[in-house]
Amino acid sequence: MTQTLSKVVRVQNMRGLHARAAARFCERAARHTATIEVTYNHHTVGGCSLMALLMLGAARGAEITIEAKGQDAAAALDDLEDLIMTNFGEAE
């Protein structure tokens, strides 16, 4: 069964969704079979597109919506939320 799930997550790290953070997000999203989309400020982009994620301009404190469609949608959302909540693996 195909699921479509979404979560709103606040970007925590100091530099927001910058190049290194966006690259980690893309890498993590690509591990899942679910299709990932990210929405910020009424713009929706593919979760595996580094340039598109950067163009969102999501700074610290931005609330982004992550949507996952597919069999592992729940696991994908949990994984990506964890990545964001741990500052993309970066020290503050």
General description of the model:
With 92 residues, the protein is of the alpha+beta class. It has a single domain (3-89), classed as HPr-like (Histidine-containing Protein, Chain: A), CATH 3.30.1340.10. It is 35% helix and 28% strand. It has a four-stranded antiparallel beta sheet, with helices on one face. Strand 2 and strand 3 form a beta hairpin. The chain starts with a strand and ends in a 7-residue tail after the last helix. The mean pLDDT is 94.
Based on the model shown, name its key terms.
35% helix, HPr-like, Histidine-containing Protein, Chain: A, 28% strand, cytoplasm, alpha+beta, 92 residues, HPr-like_sf, HPr domain-containing protein, phosphotransferase system, four-stranded antiparallel sheet
CATH class reads Alpha Beta
> What's the tally of helices?
3
Task: Give the radius of gyration.
Answer: 12 Å
**General shape:** globular
Low-confidence spans: pLDDT under 50, at least 5 residues? none
**What structural class results from the helix and strand content?**
alpha+beta
Elements, N to C (H/E): EHEEHEH
Number of beta-strand segments? 4
Beginning-to-end CA distance, first to last residue: 40 Å
Number of domains: 1
CATH H-level superfamily: HPr-like
Summarize the structure.
The chain has 92 residues and is of the alpha+beta class.
How are the secondary structure elements laid out?
Blueprint: E1 3-10, H1 19-30, E2 35-40, E3 43-46, H2 50-56, E4 63-70, H3 73-85
Helix pairs in contact: 1-2, 1-3
